Every structure is written in C-alpha cells, then in structure tokens.
Amino acid sequence: AVALVRTLWGSESDLIVWTLTTLAWIQNNAGQPREGEATAREALALRRKILPAGHWLIASAEFTIGESLVVQKRYPEAEVLLLSVFDGLKKQGPEKNDPMFFFWRDRLKYTANFLVKTYEATDQPVKAAEWKKTTLEYTVPSPPLNPPALPPSPVPNP
C-alpha cells in the first residue's frame, strides 16, 4: 500500500504519512510494535520535513510512536513522549469548523488514554485517575456526518 501511494502521489506527500501511520497502527495491533515504531518514526520524519515546526499534525505523528512504546511496555519513554504530544496538541490545533477538528480532539483523548495505561502499568493510580478525567473531557460524540442531499434523479422510477 505504501509503495502504491508513493507511486501515485510522490514520496513527500502527506498521503504517505497517513498511510504509514495507519500501517504502524495495524502493526501495533497485530503484535508487531517494534515494526510499528519504525514505521511511525518514518511517518514522523516525513511530517517534520513537509510541515512547519510546531504543527499539531507533527504531534499527532509522534502519538503513534508513543502508542508503539506503550505496547512494548517501554513506559518511561512513552510517558515523556506522550506528555509532550499532549502539550503539543493542546498548544495548536484546528478551529472547530475545520474538518480535522474531531480528529485532533480524538488524538488528545487517545493520548490521555495511553497515559492512563502507562500510569496503571507503573502503579501510579493518582496520575492514572487524573488522566482518566482528562480522557473524559475529550470523550464527546462527534456530530453526525450529514452528506448533502442528492438531487432527484432525472430518470423516473418504474
């Protein structure tokens, strides 16, 4: 899939980053977190190359590395990275009317959730409870997608 996207869109397209990030997520969930981490780091390097420093999508790419670290039980590294990711996402994100707003909000929720997992795994219940509250702050339903109504068909129904 990555090779196809590179062929179609070029090697420095953000579509490559989305494809790599999705692949990293699949690798993490398939029990291949080391591969997921390597894939996520490739996505991050590309995001840093094509976006301005401090852009929230860079922090979003870093999140996937943090996920890989949690799956590998590398909790001290994961904690440092995920705290930085959360801070980066909070500092800069899209406006509410931006189509990426709900993705951004979900990254905040997922980052907080991985911090909860990190603190529970390292027997830090107070920090885990604090981050559970933060997770709940970002757990609100996204509005339904209301596609525009299609115009009536010019072909009559039989």
Q: What is Rg?
A: 18 Å
Q: What fraction of residues sit in β-strands?
A: under 5%
CA(first)-CA(last) distance: 43 Å
Quaternary form: single chain
Please give the largest β-sheet: none
Q: Specify the number of helices.
A: 7
Low-confidence stretches: none
Explained architecture:
The chain has 158 residues and is mainly alpha-helical. 69% of the residues lie in helices and 0% in strands. The chain contains seven helices and no strands.
Helices and strands in order:
Layout: H1 2-9, H2 14-29, H3 33-50, H4 56-71, H5 75-91, H6 101-121, H7 125-137
Helix pairs in contact: 1-2, 2-3, 2-4, 3-4, 4-5, 4-6, 5-6, 6-7
Give a quick precis of the structure.
With 158 residues, the chain is mainly α.
Comma- or semicolon-separated keywords:
7 helices, mainly alpha
